[in-house]
Amino acid sequence: MLNYNQALPEQKSFQDLQMKEIKPIMKLIVRGKKREFISAVGKSLNIFLPTEANTATQSDKLTALWLSPDEWMIFSNEPVDENTNNYEIEILLNKNISKLNLGAITDVTDQFVMINLKGNKIYELFQSGSPFNFNDFQNKKGAVTQTILTKIDVIIHNQDKSAVNMFVRRSFSQHLFSWMNDAASRL
Amino acid sequence: MSFKNAKIGKINCRVMRISFTGEHSYEINIQANYGKSVWEKCMEAGKDFNITPYGTETMHLLRAEKGFIIVGQDTDATMTPIDLQMDWIVSKKKYDFIGKRSLYRSDTIREDRKQLVGLLTDNPNEVLEEGAQIVSDINKSPVEMLGHVTSSYYSPNLKKSIALGVVKGGKNMMGQKLIIPMEKKNINVTVSDPVFLDKENKRLNA
User: Fold this and answer.
1) Which residue of A4, A75, A88, A103 has the fewest CB atoms within a 10 Å radius of its CB?
2) For residue A164, what are the β-bridge partners?
3) Where are the domains of chain B?
4) What's the rounded Cα separation, in Å, for the pair B158 and B140?
């Protein structure tokens, strides 16, 4: 049996700000342009892919983030079993999307690390290292943006008031988390 | 050059029969969070067989002994598979493919194009400098540059210096003597096959 090694084993807590990796979260990139693609994903997963730019939709089990007019990230709301990487949802989409040539499904579960941030100082932290204007973003539940934080590409999802999910490439995650820890200690 | 989808425990992975070192080898492709564990299991399983990890410098040396190129180091954007003596990799059966027209233009099939060759120094302990120019006649004015050294190492397996280089018309120059003019001396080399070791692929298919 193989052991699971998460990218960010440490959790960080500051006054009004907590940061930790949520793992293992299943993450899929789905791409397609055809109308049948959107409806096939909807029927397969019981979730509507958001068509408005920089927004998200959610079902009981999944969240879908808009990334571009023909690209979405779908991730599980709850951690999945770390002893297997056989994801039923990926298998289902491969069957209903890929094999019918409606679009492409790519498993990016370990390519991206999901960092969950909670507290009232989330946006103060972001403002210290990102050029993005978070004024409207922070008041819009479900808002999504792709920006840079301390020069590193990130996808940020406004989960709820004072709760944000941030996705970063695994190879940059430790450096980013170390910077976040340093920046948060100075807020 | 084949692959198979497999499972280690309950974890899906992909095993490739692929070699960049010229030896019988495999690559295991698995999700990043299980990578460390796969490495530890392989090292544990190989303990009885004296398993040894090796780094990129070793890998570069091993691939040069076998004449495997590094794209961008042994080639530039002007080179074709024919220049690299790798025309076996291009399908002769396909009616068309991207690049086919370029591959058979009059300029790309010239006999005197720069082609990949091996270089052996007369002094087996003398290692050439990568990037050094290659000439045939040092007294000609101006000195005509025939090509340059692209990779150079001392091979512990062969106990001599080996190098890869690109030389104008090199394919038809096997055994010919050439000169590498350096700052303080000229180094004499002999053009050879770029595959220095295991030409019969015995190690590769062991």
Assistant:
1) A88
2) A117, A158
3) 2-53, 66-192
4) 34
Q: Which of B14, B31, B36 to mutate to test the interface with A (most CBs of A within 10 A)?
A: B31
Domain ranges of chain A: 22-110, 112-187
The A-side interface with B (CB below 8 A) comprises 1-7, 23-24, 82-86, 109-111, 170
Q: What would you report as the CA-atom Rg of chain A, rounded to the nearest whole angstrom?
A: 17
Amino acid at the residue B161: S
CATH code given to domain A22-110:
3.30.70.1520
Report the distance separating Cα B60 and Cα B56, nearest Å: 6
| Percent of chain B predicted with pLDDT > 70 | 100
| Chain B neighbors of A23, CB-CB under 8 A | 33
* Of B203, B126, B202, the residue nearest B163 (C-alpha): B126
CATH topology of domain B66-192: Gyrase A; domain 2 (3.30.1360)
- The model carries a pTM of 0.83
Please give the ipTM for the structure prediction: 0.87
Residue B1 has pLDDT above 90, yes or no: no
Where does the pLDDT of residue B10 fall: very low under 50, low under 70, confident under 90, or very high at 90 and above? confident
Contact B31 A170 (CB under 8 A): no
* Among B144, B92, B146, residue whose Cα is nearest residue B114: B146
Q: Which two tokens stand for residue A51?
A: 């068509």
Q: Return the residue matching tokens 């544990």.
A: B44
Instruction: Give the distance from residue B55's alpha carbon to the nearest chain A alpha carbon, in angstroms.
Output: 20
Sheet holding B11-17, edge to edge: B2-8, B11-17, B26-30
